[in-house]
TrEMBL record, chain A:
Keyword tags: Cell membrane, Membrane, Transmembrane, Transmembrane helix, Transport
Membrane-traversing stretches: 36-58, 107-133, 145-173, 218-243, 263-285
Organism: Caldilinea aerophila
Topology versus the membrane: Multi-pass membrane protein
Name this protein carries in UniProt: ABC transporter permease
Domain ABC transmembrane type-1 residue range list: 97-286
Keyword flag Ubl conjugation: no
Cellular component aspect of the GO annotation: plasma membrane
Keyword Nuclease: no
UniProtKB/TrEMBL annotation, chain C:
Pfam families tied to this protein: BPD_transp_1, BPD_transp_1_N
Topology of the protein relative to the lipid bilayer: Multi-pass membrane protein
Family (UniProt): Belongs to the binding-protein-dependent transport system permease family.
Source organism of the structure: Caldilinea aerophila
GO cellular component terms attached to this protein's record: plasma membrane
UniProt lineage: Bacteria, Bacillati, Chloroflexota, Caldilineae, Caldilineales
Protein name per its UniProtKB record: ABC transporter permease
Amino acid sequence: MSTSTLASIQSRHLQELPKQRTLLGDAARRFARNKLALLGLAMVALLLLTALFADFIAPYPYDAANPAKALQFPSQEHWMGTDEVGRDVYSRIIYGTRISLSVGMGVMAMALLIGIPLGLLAGLAGGAIDYFIMRLVEVFTAIPALMLALLLLSVFGGGLLNVILALGVVAWLDTCRLLRAQLLSLRERDFVLAARMLGATNTRIAVRHLLPNAVAPLIVAATIGIPTAIFAEAGLSFLGLGINDPIPSWGKMVGNALSYMRVYWHLGVFPTLAIAITMLGFTFFGDGLRDAFDASMNR
Amino acid sequence: MQRKIIPLAPRRASAWMMFLLIVALLIQACAPAAPSAPGTESAAPEAAPAGPVVNALGKEMPPDAAPLDQQVLIYPYSGWRTFTTIDFFQAVYERADALTDLLSDSLVRLDKNFQVNPGAATEWSVDESGLVWTFKLDPNLMWNDGTPVTADDYVATFRYGADPTHAWDFSWYYQGVIKNWTQAVNGEVPVEEIGVRAVDAHTLEFTTEMPAPYLPAMLLYSAPLQKKALETHGGLYNSNPATSVSSGPYKLVEWTKDQRLVYEINPDYKGTNIPYIQRLVVVAIGQPSQLLPAYEANEIDFVWGSGTLSPADLQLIENDPELSAQYHPHYGDFRTYYFAFDVSKPPFDNLLVRQAFAHVLDRDTILANIVKRQGIPAYSFLMPGFPASNSEAFKDTYPYDVEKARQLLAEAGYPNGEGFPKLVMKLRAEGPTPVAVAQAYASALKENLGIEVEVSNMDFKAYMDELNAKPTQVQFTLISYGMDYLDPSNMLGVFLSGGRHPWSNAEYDRLVKEASSFTGDPAERTRMFQEAEKILVEDAAFVFVYHQTPGDLIKPYLKGPALEPDNNGVAAWHWPGFSTFSDLLSGVYITKDVVNYRQPPQ
Amino acid sequence: MARYVLGRLVGVLVVFLIVSVVIFLLMHAIPGGPYNEDKVPLSAEAKANYLRKYGLDRPLWEQYLLYMGNALRGDFGVPFQSPTETVAGLIARTWPVSASIGVLALLVALPLGLLLGTLAAARQNTWVDYLTSATATLGITVPNFVVAVWLVLLFAVQFKWLPTGGWGQWQHYVMPVAALALAPMALTARYTRTSILEVLRSDYVRTARAKGLSERQIMVRHVLRNAMIPLLTILAPQIPNLITGTIFIESIFRVPGLGKFFVTSILARDYPMIMALMLLVAVVWSLVYLVTDILYTVVDPRVRLEKSRT
């Protein structure tokens, strides 16, 4: 290749390089180009808006029982039919967004808040710290959410906060282990060695190199974690713990619907759909986030 | 060349995904309708046998009965409940609704009209004091290890029930009735001093604390354990076929834990409750929701309806003429559901508040739309058909009247519910129907009176712990009670002071206790109970909602005199069911039709 | 490595002990006990009789030491729910049942999931990808007991091809395994797809492609191995879950496994059983974690479980 061609390629390359490239800027740009991710964002936004403005969207109150109209199939008046005491299912689904999102996101937040620091510690510090954190994980794994929930409920009474606490206390385990596993693999990689040779401190390596790379499976786990938390809450509601009636949560509605399912299918299908849509939304969003961060890293 | 890796899904593709999801979910929703019962096979009708067929106990089988090897009943039990024993005196609440208490005869047994008839006891009498009862035992009864059944077995069994080291879960039952029973349970006197004594090998004597005319009815629960086996192997000797002994119509041949039990007819049975059916296979069913599918698949012959059939199940049965014909409603155990308040604290210590709550219950709508055929409206505690029941008289005590309710609440100091504390209605692990009833009522309270109510369906033991705590932690609840024996002293006894509810009324106590031991004119006795019930209803510490009328599903090939209509025209599998406590087991057989449905299990 | 494994095994013991204390305290803190009350509250003496019978009248620390002392000798007591056998006997009877369904479900779910996930990743953005993603979503969103009930209605009640439940013949395995395998299969498919896609984008794959290796060789030699790590981490927790039995599946299909005891023991306040079950779970989890950690080193030789020397 002639010198001039090389020079022209080089100069073109230099011209094309934007001046300041930040990780976030890159990611945001990639995200915006990903149609599916945008769809996911839209769905999540829609869910959040529904939760916030439930009072304006829902045609009926969620607790207005009308036994004379119990167990009606979907109709003009009640788009998703009525439940076993005559409440409008559609309204309950809308209000249920609040509860289910709170549970899903609350538990996830707890899982991340506890899991990420502990996972980081375990994966990076290694040695004795890693050892003890992992043993802690194992201890918590043995404690069933059911027992914890029974205890919390009898001491503090029922309600949303206690459900989130009971589920969150066992939800951080997966996050922690995932992060640790990723870090274990990543910290031996070449780019880490390279960074170290260039004189980067451990913190800098952790924050700027390791964490962003480790984040991808975490995001995917977080998106799966939300419907898992919603269903875990349903299990608790089944056994009389957790959210009390008349407050609707989708998981609880699915659980209740089990006794009615063979004939009154609408009681189970709509909350299941709601959970599925929530999950899809978070999945697309999560995948989009992961793709956005990931691609920038490999540049 | 680099492959395009980033997914750029057009809207069309994700629409596809949603469509597929919805289709999949709709497939889930389109549950197949209940199919009709008969299977595909149909055996050729057998040639009529030469003479009448006789079973292992010499009982002549009816002409339409299936051959002896087909005389097998398949009965479900609750696989999730604790199941440790088939003997009442070992543990009542650990028998998981299975077929139990078949290995020895109770002193008395009920017929389908709930009449008390001789069982292991051929006759009984009470002395002038009304305190000492003498029961004469059938001398023919034998254990199938060759030893005779004697009064000693009964005495040993009752002593076992009162024994503090045994900690029987039904020990409250004879408290205050049999002399020294309470003291024995509390460890104050040795168990030998309870009022149960063997006068001779075939005469049993009971001494009561005070006159108890209902004692024979209570002694429905007196199926004895064998003294020898009890001493050798302990109270669980019947949980293992190897150590099991029977003097009853059946013997235990198999118990595969968490799967099934098998009984076979006891050829050495010498009593009078002689069954037709040769073999009983009792299978575990995990979830009540699986009872109907198993029944439809011809894997079980019977489904008990109390608290098991869901509203969807009942609708399916209603829609299907064959299933409807197999659905037999009956009184069950005269169970009544009621709301209860903690009257020891505000706001429910105020009669006006309670009355307001009573007036806002729209029984008719709730029953018509939620309870439907599972119950009838209850205006008081005793169900029509139960002795001393007086339902009609209380119909207008607290009729549905929202205006009146509002007025009363305002009078009590809470106009439109202002200042009224938020309530939590606690339920005791109830099934879908009572939960729905509770929710409907909670909603009515909010709508009509402005009172906020949350409904919490709790774990059974945690609930009982809260209910019985001192002071009680259950302020507002929906709960039920069903009878243990057929006498008002049993049902009305629930509301005596010191019971499970904090309500206490001296006049009520007096009336109930006096009437319970009253040995004079039965009409007078009834009157006393009815007066007590009047106090109960009027004080509105309890708002009665409905009497349960459960319905069982019984395969059409189960027939017999026990399943014919009773004096009230009800044809059903009467309480207490297939055990030595009733003569049901001697009045049911399998007809030839069974081959159209299933083969006998191995 | 040997020293590491030894250290981990000591860890299992430590976990065992900590869990035992925590569970013991937790279960006694829950209200109610192994006694039953209905019409009439138990009198103080009657309740005392119960507590004495179950050994619950002694101080907590004494009860704990007694239990653990026996446990370390292999005697886990007698379950309140089944007093004619020992806890160890009950677990020995029921665990193989649950394990057989769990293992079968895993044997079905893993290969299928891997296959589906790989397919989806390889045919990204085609209908194959979307179909598998949709199925995966379904498998995770629809609770397995709903699937189970539907399976019973279809195959047992409607078509009568299979029994509604029970145990003893091969037909009794089909539906429980199917219902149980759905979620792990979906999870596996999803993670496989994600991991593979991620790896496909990485440098060494690009290099391999540049070197001229075929897609197949790339997949097998590079992609799958690297994608395994997060997969292993997600899958490892599935194994103990499946093996200790899923409660609703076993109850719907009347499978006499260990699953139901996880719930019924708590509801019945069966303390010996609760302790034994939780300890079992703790030990199984610890061992599974140990095995997966060791597997990490096999799959990715760069992973070093001990602290890096650089």
